[in-house]
């Protein structure tokens, strides 16, 4: 049988069993023209040898699970007993005939079941993302919703889950399609002018579509300027920076609740950037510990300081840690240390960043120090005793919520607390969308410039409006995406 004929695909849809054991249930999914034949062959003794088919009486009603033995079609051995269910095309996830088996989740069961399916000559193992790709190809969802499926499976926090689910439901796709529809309307006007140039129009058509194009331009520019969706998908990035031995790694370990970074009395211990991913009040954050900022002759430490600076510059939020005392308990001039560190980096933001005066356990109550540093608020804590850390986390949580466009506390388990945010237009979530929107914006700018003088030929404006619409169509998958599909679905894992 040729590979093209093996177009009924199968895969384990649930997680692989780990070394410590399997889950209670494993789900194996098949999709394609002969999924129902597979169901019969895998559950009806002797059917494979007989050459039975989907018309076999053994086929259950669609969407009704039935308890069946799961057989090896080669020799009839019962591998497991579980639920079998089918979905008839087009009313299925992929739009094709789909069959699901719910078996026991142990490794031996899964291995034997997959090997049994592989013996059916018309079945092959699915590629990563192939189920969702087929769903896209059958018009079940647009590309943004397909990407939402991958994000939903990968979501680690409540806010990420909400954003991904909204995208699966098509909110982002609808926004882009509405923009595209308004471009296509403008294009239709322009084309009418091209086709019937002698009609006496009160005003140049190119000029007449300007308000619509200008409105769209500002909506897209606003959408591009909003980084909340990407921050939520990728995690808000927090950089811990400061002079050597300030206790940066100690603070990271305390927040992470594990020994992620080496702590020692030696100044210059940390060299690489150490990232820790955390769920902060339901929001995803990545906290980076970095090398202490100082001049050094050691090329490795120099590279560490370069990386620390680079991370601090690109982070969404900076925590500048300064020590209030040295290891012998001698008070240090920490305001001066803070001043130097602030002067050494260019990207400080009083809205988000904090100066953390660490080793407060060594600091007499007598030394409150200045409250603000170049407008950046400060707080004291002790990475040794943990004093002040809950306050820090509370403040970080509120700042992260604000960065993501939520009211502080919106993620608290209150009824539909985030509903306000749900009514706002969905934000941009991916670099792929950003690139296409930037192309769209550039084409719109050209169209607006060409139509500004009022005498531009409609053809000229129409061409750029067409390009702008095309750029939007590529986001949802309406136009010219064949070349993109392999890249997009490669990011999925097998079984999705
Ligand atoms: N007393 C006291 N000591 C602390 C505190 N935080 C850190 N230390 C000590 O300060 C020393 C340096 O801590 P680190 O966490 O390695 O400091 P760092 O800023 O990561 O240092 P580098 O990576 O070398 O830049 C260690 O001996 C810690 O135990 C604190 O709150 N109080
Ligand atoms: K150190
Ligand atoms: Mg360190």
UniProtKB/TrEMBL annotation:
<feature type="binding site">
    <location>
        <position position="269"/>
    </location>
    <ligand>
        <name>K(+)</name>
    </ligand>
</feature>
<protein>
    <recommendedName>
        <fullName>tRNA modification GTPase MnmE</fullName>
        <ecNumber>3.6.-.-</ecNumber>
    </recommendedName>
</protein>
<dbReference type="InterPro" id="IPR025867">
    <property type="entry name" value="MnmE_helical"/>
</dbReference>
<keyword id="KW-0342">GTP-binding</keyword>
<dbReference type="InterPro" id="IPR027266">
    <property type="entry name" value="TrmE/GcvT-like"/>
</dbReference>
<dbReference type="GO" id="GO:0030488">
    <property type="term" value="P:tRNA methylation"/>
</dbReference>
<keyword id="KW-0630">Potassium</keyword>
<dbReference type="InterPro" id="IPR005225">
    <property type="entry name" value="Small_GTP-bd"/>
</dbReference>
<dbReference type="GO" id="GO:0003924">
    <property type="term" value="F:GTPase activity"/>
</dbReference>
<keyword id="KW-0479">Metal-binding</keyword>
<dbReference type="InterPro" id="IPR004520">
    <property type="entry name" value="GTPase_MnmE"/>
</dbReference>
<dbReference type="Pfam" id="PF10396">
    <property type="entry name" value="TrmE_N"/>
</dbReference>
<comment type="similarity">
    <text>Belongs to the TRAFAC class TrmE-Era-EngA-EngB-Septin-like GTPase superfamily. TrmE GTPase family.</text>
</comment>
<feature type="binding site">
    <location>
        <position position="140"/>
    </location>
    <ligand>
        <name>(6S)-5-formyl-5,6,7,8-tetrahydrofolate</name>
    </ligand>
</feature>
<dbReference type="InterPro" id="IPR027368">
    <property type="entry name" value="MnmE_dom2"/>
</dbReference>
<feature type="binding site">
    <location>
        <position position="245"/>
    </location>
    <ligand>
        <name>K(+)</name>
    </ligand>
</feature>
<feature type="binding site">
    <location>
        <position position="249"/>
    </location>
    <ligand>
        <name>Mg(2+)</name>
    </ligand>
</feature>
<dbReference type="Pfam" id="PF01926">
    <property type="entry name" value="MMR_HSR1"/>
</dbReference>
<dbReference type="InterPro" id="IPR006073">
    <property type="entry name" value="GTP-bd"/>
</dbReference>
<keyword id="KW-0378">Hydrolase</keyword>
<keyword id="KW-0547">Nucleotide-binding</keyword>
<keyword id="KW-0963">Cytoplasm</keyword>
<comment type="subunit">
    <text>Homodimer. Heterotetramer of two MnmE and two MnmG subunits.</text>
</comment>
<keyword id="KW-0460">Magnesium</keyword>
<feature type="binding site">
    <location>
        <begin position="358"/>
        <end position="361"/>
    </location>
    <ligand>
        <name>GTP</name>
    </ligand>
</feature>
<feature type="binding site">
    <location>
        <begin position="245"/>
        <end position="250"/>
    </location>
    <ligand>
        <name>GTP</name>
    </ligand>
</feature>
<dbReference type="GO" id="GO:0046872">
    <property type="term" value="F:metal ion binding"/>
</dbReference>
<feature type="binding site">
    <location>
        <position position="266"/>
    </location>
    <ligand>
        <name>K(+)</name>
    </ligand>
</feature>
<feature type="binding site">
    <location>
        <position position="264"/>
    </location>
    <ligand>
        <name>K(+)</name>
    </ligand>
</feature>
<dbReference type="InterPro" id="IPR027417">
    <property type="entry name" value="P-loop_NTPase"/>
</dbReference>
<feature type="binding site">
    <location>
        <position position="29"/>
    </location>
    <ligand>
        <name>(6S)-5-formyl-5,6,7,8-tetrahydrofolate</name>
    </ligand>
</feature>
<feature type="binding site">
    <location>
        <position position="270"/>
    </location>
    <ligand>
        <name>Mg(2+)</name>
    </ligand>
</feature>
<dbReference type="InterPro" id="IPR018948">
    <property type="entry name" value="GTP-bd_TrmE_N"/>
</dbReference>
<feature type="binding site">
    <location>
        <begin position="289"/>
        <end position="292"/>
    </location>
    <ligand>
        <name>GTP</name>
    </ligand>
</feature>
<comment type="function">
    <text>Exhibits a very high intrinsic GTPase hydrolysis rate. Involved in the addition of a carboxymethylaminomethyl (cmnm) group at the wobble position (U34) of certain tRNAs, forming tRNA-cmnm(5)s(2)U34.</text>
</comment>
<keyword id="KW-0819">tRNA processing</keyword>
<dbReference type="GO" id="GO:0005525">
    <property type="term" value="F:GTP binding"/>
</dbReference>
<feature type="binding site">
    <location>
        <begin position="264"/>
        <end position="270"/>
    </location>
    <ligand>
        <name>GTP</name>
    </ligand>
</feature>
<dbReference type="Pfam" id="PF12631">
    <property type="entry name" value="MnmE_helical"/>
</dbReference>
<feature type="binding site">
    <location>
        <begin position="382"/>
        <end position="384"/>
    </location>
    <ligand>
        <name>GTP</name>
    </ligand>
</feature>
<feature type="domain" description="TrmE-type G">
    <location>
        <begin position="235"/>
        <end position="401"/>
    </location>
</feature>
<feature type="binding site">
    <location>
        <position position="496"/>
    </location>
    <ligand>
        <name>(6S)-5-formyl-5,6,7,8-tetrahydrofolate</name>
    </ligand>
</feature>
């Amino acid at each position: 049988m040729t590979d093209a004929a093996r177009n009924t695909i199968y895969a384990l849809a649930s997680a692989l069993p780990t070394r410590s054991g399997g889950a209670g249930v494993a789900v194996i999914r098949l999709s394609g023209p002969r999924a129902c034949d597979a169901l019969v062959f895998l559950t009806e003794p002797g059917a494979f040898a007989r050459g039975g088919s989907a018309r076999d009486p053994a086929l259950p009603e669609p969407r009704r699970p039935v308890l069946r033995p799961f057989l090896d079609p080669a020799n009839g051995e019962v591998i497991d007993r579980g639920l079998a269910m089918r979905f008839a095309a087009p009313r299925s996830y992929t739009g094709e005939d789909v069959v699901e088996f719910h078996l026991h989740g142990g490794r031996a069961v899964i291995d034997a079941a997959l090997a049994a399916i592989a013996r059916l000559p018309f079945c092959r193992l699915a590629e990563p993302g192939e189920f969702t790709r087929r769903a896209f190809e059958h018009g079940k969802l647009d590309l943004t919703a397909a990407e939402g499926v991958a994000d939903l499976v990968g979501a680690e926090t409540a806010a990420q889950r909400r954003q991904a689910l909204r995208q699966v439901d098509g909110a982002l796709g609808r926004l882009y399609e509405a923009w595209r529809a308004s471009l296509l309307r403008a294009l239709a006007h322009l084309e009418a002018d091209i086709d019937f140039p002698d009609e006496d129009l009160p005003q140049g058509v190119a000029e007449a579509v300007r308000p619509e194009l200008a409105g769209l331009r500002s909506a897209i520019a606003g959408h591009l300027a909003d980084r909340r969706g990407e921050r939520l998908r990728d995690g808000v990035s927090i950089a811990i920076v400061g002079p050597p031995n300030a206790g940066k790694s100690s603070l990271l370990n305390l927040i992470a609740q594990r020994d992620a970074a080496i702590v020692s009395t030696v100044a210059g211990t940390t060299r690489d950037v150490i990232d820790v991913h955390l769920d902060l009040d339901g929001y995803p954050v990545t906290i980076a510990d970095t090398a202490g900022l100082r001049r050094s002759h050691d090329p490795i430490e120099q590279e560490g300081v370069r990386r620390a600076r680079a991370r601090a510059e690109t982070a969404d939020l900076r925590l500048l840690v300064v020590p209030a005392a040295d290891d012998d308990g001698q008070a240090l001039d920490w305001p001066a240390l803070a001043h130097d560190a602030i002067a050494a980096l260019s990207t400080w933001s009083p809205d988000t960043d904090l100066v953390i005066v660490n080793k407060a356990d060594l600091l007499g109550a007598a030394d409150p120090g200045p409250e603000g540093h170049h407008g950046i608020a400060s707080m004291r804590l002790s990475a040794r005793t943990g004093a002040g850390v809950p306050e820090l986390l509370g403040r970080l949580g509120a700042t992260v919520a604000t960065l993501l466009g939520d009211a502080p506390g919106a993620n608290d388990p209150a009824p539909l607390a985030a509903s306000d945010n749900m009514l706002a237009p969905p934000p941009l979530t991916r670099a792929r969308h950003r690139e296409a929107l930037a192309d769209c914006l550039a084409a719109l700018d050209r169209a607006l410039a060409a139509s500004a003088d009022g005498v531009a030929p409609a053809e000229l404006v129409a061409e750029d409006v067409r390009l702008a619409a095309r750029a939007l169509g590529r986001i949802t998958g309406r136009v010219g995406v064949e070349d993109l599909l392999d890249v997009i679905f490669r990011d999925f894992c097998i079984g999705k």
